[in-house]
Design brief:
The protein is built from 14 helices and 6 strands. It is of the alpha+beta class. The longest helix is centred in the C-terminal third of the chain and has 30 residues, at 263-292.
Length: 328
């Protein structure tokens, strides 16, 4: 399963631009189980619509890392960043189509007022495209409007299927603290260092740099991220306090609390935990439907998708503009 820390990785996790819907689709982290007789070809997409999403994500990455990123190998199988991101785009679009099918089954539709706004959104995005963008993605205004309609309907489906879920998360459960830690292999050394750390004028961070067998000294910590023994000791501390020795899997830990309530990180974690509850509720309905209604983009269409060329294509705001018209 894709963890929240992985998703929040500051260097930009896969498809972070895809907002709430993409987060929900990625949280399961599970491979699709394709039942051959149930596969439905997602023929509703045009190549231009696929290229719109692919170009958006390609350009977002290139803006930060330059085009040299695409041949970087990501795993022992030799998968490149280009292969990885294209696979993510494909999965996103196939799930998007499946969600539209589920919305139809559930009787969830786009209202006239919503359609009007989506048309204005599509027109606004299309008008912002440069000649270089249009030459690369080959989209018409109708391609863009229809793509936004699919995306909106999928988001509306998520909202409808989870509207009765209690998303309240307590401050205690979401609480994040800032700590310093010293990790040691030897009990004798740990006892000595702990005694020094408890001294009134001790420089805890300097001790950590001198003695710790781990380079990770300064940390933010939320519940559920460490062993119960470690967390019990850490969350019992007030600002400036040092813990007793904590033993976990043969290693010895000394913890100092430097902030017993990191408000910003706590709010982020509360949002993440709330999203996890929403995802669980959504998945309880979606996964069984997806198993019986698996959609796939035909190979004949997908084989035409590429990151090559299009040096003058710089569009990145497909999802950003959506959030302006349909803020959460």
């Amino acid at each position: 399963m894709t963890g929240f820390k992985q998703w929040r990785f500051r260097a930009a996790a896969w498809l972070t631009a895809l907002a709430l819907l993409a987060i929900l689709l990625s949280l399961s982290g599970c491979e699709k189980t394709v039942q051959e007789k149930e596969v439905i070809e997602a023929e509703q997409y045009t190549l231009a619509q696929i290229m719109t999403i692919a170009a958006t994500e390609r350009n977002r990455y290139q803006k930060v890392y330059t085009s040299q990123i695409w041949e970087a190998v990501t795993d022992e199988n030799g998968t490149t960043m280009k292969d990885m991101l294209l696979a993510q785009v494909k999965t996103f679009l196939e799930d998007l189509e499946t969600m539209n099918l589920l919305a139809k089954e559930q009787g969830i539709e786009i209202s006239g007022t919503e359609l009007d706004r989506l048309h204005r959104l599509g027109q606004a995005y299309f008008q912002e495209l440069t000649n270089g963008d249009l030459e690369y993605i080959q989209a018409t205004e109708q391609d863009i409007i229809r793509l936004y309609e699919k995306y909106y309907l999928a988001n509306k489906l998520v909202a409808e299927l989870t509207k009765d879920v209690d998303l309240e998360i307590s401050d205690s459960k979401a609480k994040v603290i800032d700590i310093l830690q010293i990790v040691l292999d030897s009990l004798e050394t740990a006892q000595q260092v702990h005694q020094e750390a408890m001294a009134e004028d001790a420089d805890f961070e300097a001790l950590a740099k001198s003695y710790s067998v781990s380079d990770e000294i300064r940390r933010t910590l939320g519940r559920g991220e460490e062993s119960s023994a470690f967390e019990e000791a850490a969350f019992a501390l007030e600002d400036g306090q040092v813990s007793p020795l904590v033993t976990v899997n043969g290693k010895y830990y000394i913890i100092k609390c430097i902030n017993s309530y990191n408000e910003e990180e706590t709010l982020i974690r509360k949002s993440e935990l709330s999203l996890a509850k929403k995802d669980q509720a959504f998945r309880s309905i979606y996964d069984s439907f997806q198993a019986e209604n698996q959609t796939e983009i035909p190979d004949s269409l997908w084989s035409q998708v590429t990151f090559d060329g299009g040096e003058e294509c710089t569009t990145t705001n497909f999802f950003d503009l959506y959030r302006e018209y349909f803020p959460e």
